[in-house]
Specification:
One of its GO terms (biological process) is cellular response to oxidative stress. About 45% of the residues lie in helices and about 5% in strands. The chain is mainly alpha-helical. The N terminus and C terminus are likely disordered. Bound molecules: protoporphyrin IX containing FE.
Length: about 350
């Protein structure tokens, strides 16, 4: 059932991205043939960057811009926000492997992974990464790109908080890349710059360190060993960038597909890369990489048992990842409503 929904979501995404690419044709890109259809269906309207990216799809998606100060009967349309996020995911063929999905997942994780259960500070609530010092932390290098990509969506739907938008973008990206459906609900609010108590740097994990460090960081958030390993499975997607972290390369050969590939690769043979950069590991092709903290997932026996489990059983990985990622995005958030059913967690099928 979940897989069927995910596949339905992918079809929907492909249709949308086809339409976006069709419009991009005008600026000299691909997909010329669908342009007249899109124009005919959606009508011409709206200027500015976002309208160029996906505004013409509004007619198709049934969404429209919503006033900044909504009336009391106003019902926020999260499906429209989801659709807008899906539209940007593959809107730039030139970016990395053709998808902003991985960097949006990293944004959702880093905005949430600052949480400390001991004093209830940090976490996604507040969207404090908009400001220094957090925006300037080495660990957050490159995430300005992710925040910028979402800015036109924030402008189009000003009623959504940055903190809801950033976390929802991570969820939508994972689902669109073929991953599990993830429970998500709104309710985060943003802090003003002068209302932020600056967090100490060092709350996010350092890839060059060991299993003790990984446990210290994730136990501080309230996760156990199994949840840690499940969360690490997100390294199936995306890559390291020399100009961001100093590390280089992807973990799998399909960095825009969410799968248990991180675990199957981890079980292979890895050796230290010979280069002048930071210590990282490479496979026999020399194309894939693992960070020292990734290697600890197999060097540490307690972590290793879950690597074995998830390498064998993708459904179990999806189930555990979905639960742990949802928990991560909710750390420290003072929700009013406890019921997930009050907020949509999956894209509506196309009528
Ligand atoms: C010990 C824990 C972790 C460490 C040390 C770590 C470290 C890193 C590093 C160094 C990068 C490369 C950044 C770059 O150069 O662009 C990266 C990328 C990434 N990480 Fe992690 N990570 C950890 C856990 C996680 C978790 C829990 C998630 C999500 C649940 C995650 C999701 C990602 C994704 C999706 C990327 C790719 C980003 C892109 O392609 O732009 N990571 N991580």
């Amino acid at each position: 059932m979940l897989r069927a929904l995910a596949s339905r979501g992918r079809q929907l995404k492909q249709l949308r991205s086809l339409a976006v690419r069709g419009y991009a044709t005008e600026a000299g890109k691909t997909g010329k043939s669908s342009l007249p259809l899109i124009l005919g269906l959606a009508g011409l309207g709206g200027g500015g960057y976002y309208a160029k990216q996906s505004g013409l799809l509004d007619g198709l998606l049934g969404s429209s811009a919503i006033p900044a100060t909504p009336s009391k009967d106003f019902k926020p349309d999260y499906q429209a926000v989801r659709a807008a996020i899906e539209d940007v995911l593959e809107s730039n063929d030139e970016y990395d492997d053709g998808s902003y999905g991985p960097v949006l997942v990293r944004l959702a994780w880093h905005t949430s992974g600052t949480y400390d259960k001991n004093d209830n500070t940090g976490g996604s609530n507040g969207a404090t990464m908009r400001f220094g010092p957090e925006s300037g932390w080495g660990a957050n290098a490159g995430l300005g790109d992710a925040r910028d990509i979402l800015e036109p969506i924030k402008k189009k739907f000003p009623w959504i908080s940055y903190s809801d938008l950033w976390t929802l973008a991570g969820v939508v990206a994972i689902e669109a890349m073929g991953g599990p459906q993830i429970k998500w609900r709104p309710g985060r609010s943003d802090k003003e710059e002068n209302g932020c108590v600056p967090l100490p740097d060092g709350r996010l994990p350092d890839a060059s360190r060991d299993n003790k460090h990984v446990r210290d960081v994730f136990y501080r958030m309230g996760f156990n060993d199994q949840e840690i390993v499940a969360l690490m499975g997100a390294h199936a997607i995306g890559r390291c960038h020399a100009d961001r972290s100093g590390f280089v390369g992807p973990w799998t050969f399909s960095p825009t597909t969410f799968s248990n590939g991180y675990f199957t690769e981890l079980k292979g043979k890895w050796h230290k890369k010979k280069w002048n950069g930071p210590i990282q590991y490479e496979d026999k092709t020399g194309e894939l990489m693992m960070l020292p903290t990734d290697m600890w997932m197999v060097w540490d026996k307690k972590f290793r048992q879950y690597v074995d489990l998830y390498a064998k059983d993708q459904d179990k990985f999806f189930e555990d990842f979905a639960a742990a990622f949802s928990k991560l995005l909710e750390l420290g958030v003072p929700f009013e409503k406890r019921d997930f059913n009050t907020s949509p967690s999956s894209p509506k099928p196309m009528a």
